[in-house]
Write a structure and sequence with these properties.
The protein has 168 residues and is of the alpha/beta class. The protein is built from two helices and ten strands, in the order E-E-H-E-E-E-E-E-E-H-E-E. The strands form three sheets. Strands 3, 4, 5, 8, 9 and 10 form a six-stranded mixed β-sheet that branches. The protein has a two-stranded parallel sheet with strand order 1-2. The protein starts with a strand and ends with a strand. This is Pre-mRNA cleavage factor Im 25 kDa subunit.
Length: 168
Amino acid sequence: MGDLHMGVEAEAINDSSSDNHSKRVDIYPLSCYYFGSKEAIVFKDETLSDRINRMKSNYAAYGLRTSVEAVILVELFKHPHLLLLQVRNSFFKLPGGRLRPGESDIDGLNRKLSRKLSASEDGNETEWQVGECLGMWWRHDFETLMYPYLPSKAKKPKVCRSAPNSSL
């Protein structure tokens, strides 16, 4: 199991250690970051049935939909907190999104994080640190539930979502 180190004086991961199972995750105080607001993102679908129909047509055109969502930890009141984005005042989600065809997880996550979390408009100056993948979820049909495994009955999954550890 890895160590969790909080505070401004946290050091980088020590790659010279011989134990590969001992990973160190550095998290920094929330006060080190600037938070503002951006214009709301317009949603393509008004209802769940609209979303399912769009997913079906996209699957027919492009195949498996891959997406990536960042797990970003920050420290507040000496406890780790997960950074989430609020959507339509109704639910929260991890920052990230759908990958373009042929785009790697790291490139796609950098693009999405720069667009959604960067203070500058172009997002080019932001340096995101993308770590190891913490989990993958699968959707084997056009439904809302995702599974942390690919069910054996699923011959052609519809959606794959990965969640790497990232830091600001």
